[in-house]
């Protein structure tokens, strides 16, 4: 979480430190990304259980059961991990269209750290009165700003191609994370009534 804050307030120096550290994909996944997602999911989940979310056109407050919350948060973590892995693959592929030679590790590092402000802002979903799109909107703006410094430092593209690579990767991440947010926000707001029994059934199978 500290690294995510540093990327927001001091992106250039933080990216330089990340570049010099040259951490592996496994290290970033296990030591940085998974703990960040688990902490923010725990915070969001606590809010869903304790305070709930307003659902329906008339508007009723639903406090989520612990078991259902665990299922919802687990699915979100898996979806966000998929976003990072797929986003890294696509970033690497986009870089190759600009005649760059990039490794998957470079792309994964860029995407994982660039999206950390978005992941951090998921904590806003813990509060009842905060609409689910608010956290995503603020988070993706900050992530795109962080990505602006991350692409040239981590991907090391040709200077003439740097802005094009940044723009394409930014649009890609906005669309992919926006799609995930659309689905998760709709569920939290009760827009998928046919899906709720499935989630409840999965939750009932949990051993607690």
Secondary-structure blueprint:
Blueprint: H1 2-9, H2 11-21, H3 25-50, E1 53-55, E2 60-62, H4 66-97, H5 104-114, H6 116-120, H7 132-155, H8 159-188, H9 196-204
Antiparallel strand pairs: 1-2
Strand order of the largest sheet: 1-2
The number of helical elements comes to: 9
Radius of gyration in whole Å, from Cα? 18 Å
Structural class: mainly alpha
Helix content: over 70%
Task: Give keywords.
208 residues; mainly alpha; two-stranded antiparallel ribbon; 9 helices
Explain this structure:
By secondary structure, the protein is mainly alpha-helical. The chain has one domain. Helices cover 75% and strands 3% of the residues. The chain has a two-stranded antiparallel ribbon with strand order 1-2. A hairpin with a 4-residue loop joins strand 1 (53-55) and strand 2. The longest helix is centred in the middle third of the chain and has 32 residues, at 66-97. The radius of gyration is 18 Å and the shape is elongated. The model has no long low-confidence stretch (mean pLDDT 91).
